[in-house]
Amino acid sequence: MTSYRKYFLGFKEFPSPKPVYVGNNNAIMAYGQGTVNVDMKVNGKWVSNHLSEVWYVPDVSRNLFSVSQTLAKGFVFRAEGNECSFTRDGHVRLRGIRTVNGLYALKMRVVCPEVPAEVCFASADQSLQLWHEILCHQNKTYVKEFLDQRGIEVCESKVSCEGCLYGKQQRGRFHERPSRPIVTEALIHADVCGPMQEISIGGSRYFVCFKDVFSRFRRVFFMESKSEVSNCLKVFLSEAKTAGHTIKEFLSDGGGEFKNSQVCGMLQSCGINIRYSMPYTPEQNGAPERENRTIVEAARSILHHKGLPLKLWAEAVNTAVYVLNRTGPTREKEKTPIELWSASSFNVRYLKVFGTKCFVHVPKQRRQKLDPKSVAGFFVGYCGEKDGYRVWLKKQNKIILSRDVIFENEASYSVIAQNGKSCSVVNEPSVDHGSEIELIRSSDVPDSDVCQEIGEASCDAIGSKESSDEQERNLRDRSMLKKPARYDNCVLLAEHAEPDT
Asked: CB under 8 Å to 211, separation ≥6 — which residues?
């Protein structure tokens, strides 16, 4: 090592100064290394040679030669009496003589180059890199301005700081996103959300959301495990085909639930282009990531607003998607996602507040003579467009589907028709298979929107209440009615007595 800049023929700066510990255990800094040309005296003759990896240490008091580094390069060191030598391949390459203070002075002289290497370093306290480290790795531009204001001159340094790379490295900027699709079905995003902290009533822990980018139409499926994604995708593609849509491109993350032979084979057989985002890069799949956040936040809000248990999270998610599809914004003003996806309209007056207490009519087939004709529950979702409501019965811990529901603080029945089958009780295992569909069943066929059950009776009796009122107004005068002829030979007696039970 040397403190002379003019010695260097070639020079390479260290990324950060390296400490060199001297005899008093103090550290002096080395700022780079390079090549120095020398002449060595061997057997009375001067031989030209060079030293590589010579460190530039401004504070070192004299030129030092490392024996250990020389031995590492295959030399043999011998010291006999007052002389020493370095030998390699059986030939003496360098000799030295012992001085008074115990050090060996090598028979070597430096040959300074005509054009010395540019070494832009000041003393240790003037190094920008050193001050950068002293000031806890603040931005070098600011460090230089800070020191200039206080009269401390430092050299410019473009060397990258290894410590900053470990502690501050940021991800690269993302390019502008490609142009959005201008028609439905051009691009479908997909993402899985879960596991949830509590199992739903139907036994689900996850849900997968498929979203059309143009219309913003969502379709959710609820699953016990991620391995069910392929079955959900199969159902979604079938529904899209039935609705007249041909999916052109499918984008998801590279998770194993999407990146497997079953899903890839299904998409390729349909001629759908597959795109995966890079590992740990959710920004490339940002739309479904943000969509899941929107859905979960809506579900969380409606659950906690009414103080309902977390096991109803699937019903809350299902309801949130149902409402978002019918009221959410799209790129076309005055049109909702469901209108762009299936060209169907919707009356917002049909919507109710999630978790509202309600009363469900119990059909006569399911009650005895003196049993109550209504059972109390909580509204937790919809069945189709106007087919009925999903109601959670707290005591029985089950969900029923009904067309005849009176909501608390409402004076009349809902717009659901009163004719036909009025209530169908759903057993626990199949509750979430309507809302949390796993496989298509003949008794639980979802519509083209969110997973829902549709009752057996049709729902085209809007205004049935008005028609019944009209019939009541048109009844004949009761005083003009005559008894049937079959009662002419009968006598009716009324006896005042307590009923015998």
From this structure: 188, 189, 190, 217, 218, 219, 287, 288, 291
